[in-house]
Amino acid sequence: MILTLVLLSIGALLFLVIAYNVVQQYKQKVESDKRASITRHKAIADETEEILLNVNMLPFSKAMVLILQHRILDSYRAMAQVSPHLSQLKQRIADTQSQITNVQENYRSPEEGGFRAPDSDRQAIQMLQIIKKMRAVLRVEHNKGKIDPQGFAQEDRRLELMQLKVNIANLTQRARDAMIGSQFGTCRQLLGKGLAVLGAVADKDPYLLAREEDLRQALQELDSRIQQESQKEMQTIKDKEADELDVLFQPKKKW
C-alpha cells in the first residue's frame, strides 16, 4: 500500500514537472512570438516612414501618401494589440492619425510637371529604388484589400511612368555626355533606344512627350554633327593631298 502511494506521488510529481515545463515553454513561445511580431511591424513602419522622407525628391500623389500613412498606422495598431503596455505607441498612433487628417485636408497632388529629373546617376538610382519600394508596398496593400483594383491600377501605372521618366532623363544626360565626348556611335545608340521605348508608350504625359521631342531633336543634331565632322575630315584629306602634290611638283633647288 505504501509502495503504491509512493509510486503515485512520484507519478504526480513527474506530471506536475512536465506540466510546468509545458506551460513555461508555451509562455516563452508566446513572448517570442510577441517580440517577433513587434519587430516585424516596427520594420514595416520604419521602412514606410523612410519612403515618406523622400516626398520632396519624387512627386507623391495624395493617394500614395495616404496609403503609406495608413500602412504606418496599421503597424502601430498591430503592435499595440500585441503589447498594450508600450506607452509610446499611443502617442505614435495619435500623431499618425493627425498626419492622415492633415494630408486629407491640405495635401495636393503634384501637377504633371512636378517631376524633377535626377542630377546624377547616383540620384537616379536612389529615385528608382524608392519607386520600386513604393510599387512593392502598393501591391502588398492591394493584396490585403486596402486598395480597390481600379485605384491600384491607376497608382501603379503612375509609378511605372515615373520610373520611365527617371530612366529617360538619365539616358538623355548620358547621350549628351557621349555627344560632347564625340562618341557618336554610343550617342546614336542611346537616342535610338530612348525613342524606341517612348514610341511604345501610348499614354505619355506632357513630360514624356517633351522628352520624346528632345530626343528627336538631339538625333537630328547628331546627324548634322556627324555630317560636319565628315566634311571636315574630307577637307583635311584633300588639303593634305594638295600639300603633298605641291611638294612633289614644286621647282627643285639648284645647288
Instruction: Give the rounded overall mean pLDDT.
Output: 84
Beta-strand residue percentage: under 5%
Number of helices: 7
Question: Mind summarizing the main beta sheet?
Answer: none
Mind explaining what this structure looks like?
The longest helix has 51 residues, at 2-52. This protein starts with a helix and ends in a 6-residue tail after the last helix. The chain is elongated, with a radius of gyration of 34 Å. It is 81% helix and 0% strand. It is mostly helical.
Fold topology:
Elements: H1 2-52, H2 62-82, H3 87-106, H4 121-143, H5 149-180, H6 184-199, H7 206-249
Helix pairs in contact: 1-2, 2-3, 2-4, 4-5, 5-6, 5-7, 6-7
Summarize the structure.
Helix content is 81%, strand content 0%. It contains seven helices and no strands.
Structural key phrases:
255 residues; single chain; mainly alpha
